[in-house]
Each structure stands twice: as C-alpha cells, then as structure tokens.
Amino acid sequence: MSKFNTARAPTATSPVRGEATPSTVTHEGGAGYARDSKSELFLLAVTNMVGEHAFYESADTRDTRFAELVRQSTLDDPEWTARFLRWLRTDANLRTASLVGAAEFAKARRDAGLDGLSRQVVADVLQRADEPGELLAYWTSVHGRAVPKPVKRGVADAAAKLYDERSFAKWDSAARAFRFADVLELTHPVKRDDAQGALFGHILDERHSRGNAIPEVLKTLRARAELMSWDVGRRRELFTRPDAADVLRAAGMTWESVAGWLQGPLDARVWEALIPSMSFMAQLRNLRNFDEAGVSDTVARQVAERLADPAQVAKSRQLPMRFLSAYRAAPSLRWAWALEQAIAHALANVPELAGRTLVLVDTSASMNDRFGKDGSLLRWDAAAVFGLALARRCAQADVVSFSDGYWGRGTKVFKLRRGGSLLSDVERWKSGGFFLGGGTDTAGAVKKHFAKHDRVVILTDEQAAHGDVGHALPAHVPLYTWNLAGYRAGHAPSGSGHRHTFGGLTDQGFRMIPLLERGKKADWPF
C-alpha cells in the first residue's frame, strides 16, 4: 500500500504557530493559546506603534516585550530576524517598530559577542533622512552614549544614501536631539561624490555657526537662502508669478516650510503652486486644507488622478486606513471616488473566495483602542475595513459585528449593498451603531451565526472572554483569525489543522488564504 503517493491533499500550514491546546488565558479570561516566539514577535510588530498604550498593555510593557522578543529571535535565528526587520520597514511600512527592532538586533548580537549582520540590518531599516538621527537617539536613550561600531557603520551607510540638499532642508531641526551634523560627526559617512562632500561640510558649518558661504555646487540650498532673505511683505508676491511652482521646487520648499516663510495662511494660489512638488502622502493628508483654501477643480482633478493611480498608491506604501482617514477628513466629495479607488489598490491582495464566508468583526470595548496618539483611527476601524473589503470580494458573505451583549445585542448583522463602495460601507458601519462595546464573546458569536459556511474569518484582538474559540465550529471548517493587536495569548490554535492566524495593518496576509485552501504551505511574507 502506498504511503506517500496518494491523491489526498497535503496538510496546509501557515507560519504563525500556536499550541494545540490552551495553556493560558486571554486578558478577558477565555482559553488562551501560547505562540512560539517568532509568531508572537510577528503579530506584535505588525500592529505595534512604539510608545503607545494598548487596551490591555501599557506602552512600557508592550515595548519591553517587543524588545525582548527581538533579542530572543536574533539569537535563535538572526537571518530570519534580519529579513523580517527589512520587510517590516519596506512592505509593512512600519517605521518606528523596525527602527527599534534593528537597534535591539544589534544590541543582542553585541552582548552575545557575535559579529556580522548588524551593520546591514541597521542600514536596511533607515529609509528616510530623519531616521539615522532617530536611531541614534533611541540607542543613546536606552543603551547609553557608547554606540558600537556596527551601529555607527550602518547609520553612516544610511546617511550617505539619504542625505542630500532637500532632505537637509526638510528634516534638520534644532528641535531634534541628533541633528544631521551630529550624525556626521559621530558616524563619519563616506561621501558619494564631491557635491555630497560639499554638503557635509556645509552641514557642519551651519551646526557650528562658522559663517561660511554656501558652496556654489549646492544650488538648492542657495536658492532657498535667497528666498529666506526676502522681506516678509514681498514673499506673497511670488504667487502672482507663473513660475512660482518652479521657484519653490528649485529651493526645496515644502508646504510646511512655506507656511512658516509666509507667516500667514496658505490660500488657493499658494497651494496650487505647492501641489506639483508635494509627495503623494503630503497631498493625501492635505485634502481638507485644499478644500478650505478653495483650490480649483482643475487642480483638484490632477490630485485625484494621482491618488487613484495604482502605481502611485503602490509606490506610496500608504496603509489602507490612511485613505479612510483622508476620506473622513475631507469636507467635500470631490475626492471620494479617487479615495475609493486608492483604498481598493491598497487592498489588492484581498482574494476572491468561492462559496460562503462568515466574516465576524470584533467591536468589543478593547477594539475601541486607538493606534496612535491622534486617535483618528481605532482598531475596529481597521477590522471593519479589512472585513468589509474581504466580504465584497467573496461570492457570498455574511458580515456580523459582535461583542458579548453587555450593552444590548451581542451581535448585529451588516447588510452589504450591491453596487456600494467600501468607504461608504465603513462609514455606514460607523454611523449605523455597529460598534457594540462591552466584552468579547467570540465563541458565542461563532456558534450563533455559523450556518454551514465554507470558512469563518474573525477580525479581532483575540482577547475573548468566554469559551474556546478554536473549538466553537467543526474542526474541518477553516477558521482564519486576523489579529489587530498582537497580545501574547491567542484565542485559537494556529499554523495547521484548518486554524490559521494572520495579522497587521496591510493586506499582505490575505495572500495566504487561497494558498491554504489549495492545501499548500503558506510561509512568512518575506
């Protein structure tokens, strides 16, 4: 009898691995499944805004756990950790977590007396010109003033790659503990060419008030200095000229610097001169300002075309929730279609699923937890975005908001409208009373709404209060958990046996579902 050459599909596995039976409890007291260290690190990192409190964890507790997991992973599997941190900064676009992770990677290697990898890991995660100083500030505040050579060399590599006239004008500031000159003096990067060498010299001259003229080769900084020398009363006259946009671009003037330069409001003429040189992210975050200033429909159409361009969306690496935030902030509807297109492009990895899918969105009190200090986006916002995006791609989907009924109903069914849009769905979710509050009876919601579906997808922080979610539906039915908080204990097994956990604030994890349903192994996304 054949043991291996059979028609039976292989058992599908996924990378986030948890134990088969619960050994702990969640923060709400439900059955808790511990995960291996890589899985715990991954789920925490992809949901972690460093220095921010979470509903069940203080910022210090969360940050300490993250640092400890990075150090453990570095010692256990440094190559995996190096790939992960590079991916975290690039594809996941999580800046601070990857920066802290790189510093802790280097610290773990140094403490263990190990050579290699740290320089490259540090250089890989530093991708914006303010980040070399940011990493040094983190290192010296946490690990002391002595910066080891691999960290210095990685920072120097990044500075040589990132420092140019425009980045110096944009990011150098007396408000920062480590200015560009401090980075240069501590790490001694090797200049790319003579022009960058002249820039490095000028940066040091400025830092130490030596009074030397700006070198001729630094044309952007010379043009900027010329504009700064204008009398305040003359500056607004620039925007009566047809070449205003070119003048601002040549001088490396951002919208923030122009606001300070004018010492007054940015009206429509100013914005229209700035828009051609603004980044995708800057345009996305200023839609309200464009409307309030009265930017013309012609210019607005140009902005909208860029926002809706799939190549521009991909290049920008904006998180899907950024488009929801922009949609909510903009007072006019002239951006709505472009933002709908943009968020669809940002969710391109959400698959089309055959059969019937039950989508459960956790709206318990702990999901009313903000991701960042501004509080503009909450965990249930992200859960609704991902859940509704998936539901719209399914052949047939039932979408349910759930908690535990403490404030009333424990669940509420959301009706998808044919021909509707994702952004309008999310706003209808917000305004229609689908945030339920209270505790988290995930197992109860599964049992109540499961009706021979082909799969169940739960978007949650996994902190269930009752029962065992992993055993709340038949073992042969796939259960996919999308984790949005990264707490230590999960609510179900994971990694095999039709129980799988993903996580994060991007759409990349969705690529695993079709693989798993074809019986294939789904690996880490890096």
Automatic annotation (TrEMBL):
GO terms for molecular function: metal ion binding; RNA binding. One of its GO terms (cellular component) is ribonucleoprotein complex. Its main location: cytoplasm. Keywords: Cytoplasm, Metal-binding, Ribonucleoprotein, RNA-binding. This is TROVE domain-containing protein. It comes from Amycolatopsis mediterranei (strain S699). The keyword Kinase does not apply. The lineage of its organism: Bacteria, Bacillati, Actinomycetota, Actinomycetes, Pseudonocardiales. Belongs to the Ro 60 kDa family. Residues 24-355 form the TROVE domain. The keyword Metal-binding applies. Signal peptide: none annotated. Gene3D superfamilies: von Willebrand factor, type A domain. It is found in: Cytoplasm. Residues 1-32 are annotated as: Disordered. Transmembrane segments: none annotated.
